[in-house]
Known about the structure:
Helix content is 43%, strand content 14%. The protein has 512 residues and is of the alpha/beta class. The longest helix is centred in the C-terminal third of the chain and has 22 residues, at 398-419. The two termini are 43 Å apart.
Amino acid sequence: MQFDHKLKEYFSAEKGAYSEVTPREFYDSQITLTGVEADIVESYFGKNNINVGSVKSNVELSSKRFLILPDLMEVELNLVYPKASKSELRLYLRKGFKPNGGDIFVVYISKDNKLVIGGYPIEEWRGISEDYEQLSLFEDENVIDDVESNDNEDDSESEYMSQPFDPTKIDVDTKTPSLDTLIKRIYRGNIQMDTSKYFQRRADLWDNKKQSRLIESILIRFPLPAFYFDATDDENWLIVDGLQRLSSIRNFCVDKTLVLDKLEFLTQLNGKSWDDLGGDMQRLIEETQVVIYKIMPGTPTDVKFNIFKRINTGGISLSPQEIRHALFQGKPAEFVQDLANCSEFIDATFGTISTKRMADRDFINRFLAFYLLGYKNYQPDLDTYMSKAMASLYDKTNDEIEKIGNDFKRAMFLSSEIFDKEAFRRPNFSTQRLSPLNKALFDVLSSQFALLNFEESEALLNNKRLFRDKFYSLFEHDDYFNLTITSSTGNQKRINYRHSQIEEIINDILNK
């Protein structure tokens, strides 16, 4: 996994990467550098300055100097291309630097152009990663947590939905009320400030200085950015954009817990709270005009989904699944959460999918889309199709919900029994490392397995070796199948192809 800007700052690195040391690598005292790791090391030493072949073939050229974390002590380690093709770069470990299996291997180039490596026990690495949202245990730069990412998930050949929504159905009301209108709504509970109930976003992320500066901006009549609300329920507006600003206003004007500090212009107000302000200043705040946009009742769900995506401008933009969670409250959101928390799903994925941005529920939603609506009925885009699946849950009876849950859990059990820890991962034929979880493989295997009845599941399980052989053969001999799970995975043709191929393998085994 490639360092993001936060890790670069933490390690004072120009560029870097990290991955998990496998038990086999520890046992063999060697780490195979791949992806970004190999690029970093090759760019530092130069490919022509790395020995090709065994260490013994050129001991001097094989020996390279590295700085070792945490003390940046210099150590010499052997580095070679074991194959003439230079397709594999191998770093040999020895006393002085030998991370254990399960540790996190780190390699980066420092700001002063030094090559630095290190090993962190997993608990220590988690201590580092707690401050960051998207750290992975795997080496691929397209991984978020243990999930393989596609930058262009939908059809790369066309950005447009096959059936775009009707723009005339967009019903957004623009108002310019006084700030006192929002203050009163907050006080009466008519604005849902606890966004964790519908978004995985937290209020009060701003520090005291930033909150104080917002209040100062109001007092010196700087215009505020617009606020966006979902006003489907007029008694309970949902905040689409503007949470931190509203939290600051609540803390100062309603809860009266904010004490102004580090003001830039009105320094005489430092140390003052709402009750310390004179009536004229309180009135100035209350009468400040703001711009609000309200998504009105009756706006179709697909329209609301696109509005949410386009106007949410917070520091951490909402993920599509967070938006779906907000739009489909009640039975759909609760059922998706239940499936994400079930032991069968956690066991099948080894609990490695992050829950912070509802990434785990995104997997569940993909399953529901192709299980409930079918792959043959799919029309782009994928987000809209997944939303339709969520909406369809409102019409399901309790018995139908229970059956969906049971079918899903059986599919997870079947996946675990057939693939063990390699479930929903692309096979890695060149190294012992696990590939990250692949969403496209998850949607096809989970839905196709869930559509089997109990007897068919048992028959497939009894022929699991044959299924695995046929499954892995796709990766070795079918380039297009590989493409369907790695690029533009929401493309209609690619979805149909990957599902039909797995469906065909299953039918061949069950009908033999």
